[in-house]
Amino acid sequence: MSTEVRVPTLGESVTEATVATWFKKPGDTVAQDEMLCELETDKVTVEVPAPAAGTLAEIVAQEGDTVGVDALLASISEGATDGAAAAPAAKADAAAPADSGSSESIDVMVPTLGESVTEATVSTWFKKVGDTVAQDEMLCELETDKVSVEVPSPAAGVLSEIVAAEGTTVDAKAKLAVIGGSAASAAAAPSAGSESHAAQPAAASGSKPDVEDAPSAKKLMAEKGLSADQVTGSGRDGRVMKGDVLAALSAPAPKAEAKAAPRAPVPAEDASREERVKMTRLRQTIAKRLKDSQNTAAMLTTYNEVDMTETMALRKEYKDLFEKKHGVRLGFMSFFTKACCHALKEVPEVNAEIDGTDIVYKNFVHMGVAAGTPTGLVVPVIRDADAMSFAGIEKAIAEKGKRARDGKLSMAEMQGGTFTISNGGVYGSLMSSPILNPPQSGILGMHKIQDRPMVINGEIKIRPMMYLALSYDHRIVDGKGAVTFLVRVKEALEDPRRLLMDL
């Protein structure tokens, strides 16, 4: 019996990859989930694990070949050799608890962090060395640029060693800790383990290991006259990939960074009352992306106001029936999402993005909904919001919002947005200028609904009013388009029937 090894899903809009490196050759014994080869796309490097244990019978796609999604890479013969079945046991050093007193040691590795995420910071250890842990019990929490990742114990036993302490930055393949099978092994592990791990930094500080760069990378470096020491490799063991060469070629000439102004001296009586806390990776990323947005886009904001009388009346009339039928509350976000999708059809450049010298128009709406969490602002994405019903939108917003507050959002859930809505009104904001979420070209800011005197047909009436703000990238969106978009949103909310009539 043989098992096919095929190209995995490569990511949104990525349709092909290049086979960069094979780690195994035909005839080699492989364990399930052992890495077989590395694929290289325009943006990321993808490792392909063995779908089953056995013997690598045939390699169909050679190094340097370009393959599409689900293409056949190789085949594995199952049961062709006893070695494959024995490999996992041998890898564990045949350390199952026995009368001899030996015990199995299992490494706790960094889990999959998400597409394009290469490192994380160990934020919190829930256990300490010597603690007994159950299988799947949470050991520690990692913090990436976007999300927090909990690391469960791969097996029951004793936490015999913590390799990466709190505050340590680790890569996607790093060892975090070691689980011993018994208290006896836990007592012995720190002394033996500390010596082996103490030797690792020394080895790492030496010369770069002799690794084979990706064929496509070597070819491109030769064409462009680059040497390997001019390119930083992102592949396994520092292997240079094609994307690394392209990044090196497109990188601007290094410029002297402007240093931040030194902090003014603090009086001694105040210094003792200060508290200095290191920024989380999420907060650092938020700061960097917001500043990059200001530096890159020609950002401008236009304002309008909307009379919420009709939308509020419609919501009040149907909210109980809506919740009874659909099992979710009817809020204002579904009205605004629908109104924005409606307006984006008329002004498609607000839903587009700039890619080099091209404008990419999106014939769909993946709506980002900014959500505040205890650790910072995140923007989960509701895909194909333009094709969803009011109930579908409300359910998606409720589910994404809960996952955001619990820190359970995945990287995939925050990627690919084409337009964003930010509701500062929930915090009492009356007026603000939202910052673009790159590479998007538009973001709508909602604000507090406040009763104000308005002139209606020559009479002063009290109406529930909300200020709206559209920040847009003036490189792609002209003033006329921005104002038209905001007016269409205003019209749809002041007369929600227009949404039903597609007017």
From TrEMBL:
Per the UniProt record, which residue ranges are transmembrane? Answer: none
Is Cell cycle given among the entry's keywords? Answer: no
What is the name of this protein?
A: Dihydrolipoyllysine-residue succinyltransferase component of 2-oxoglutarate dehydrogenase complex
**Lineage, top ranks:** Bacteria, Pseudomonadati, Pseudomonadota, Alphaproteobacteria, Rhodobacterales
Q: Which GO terms describe its cellular component?
A: cytosol; oxoglutarate dehydrogenase complex
Q: Peripheral subunit-binding (PSBD) domain: from which residue to which, for each copy? A: 212-249
Keyword Protease in record: no
**Cofactor needs:** (R)-lipoate
Biological processes annotated in GO? L-lysine catabolic process to acetyl-CoA via saccharopine; tricarboxylic acid cycle
- Residues covered by region (Disordered): 191-216, 254-276
Q: Which gene encodes it?
A: odhB
Q: Which family does it belong to?
A: Belongs to the 2-oxoacid dehydrogenase family.
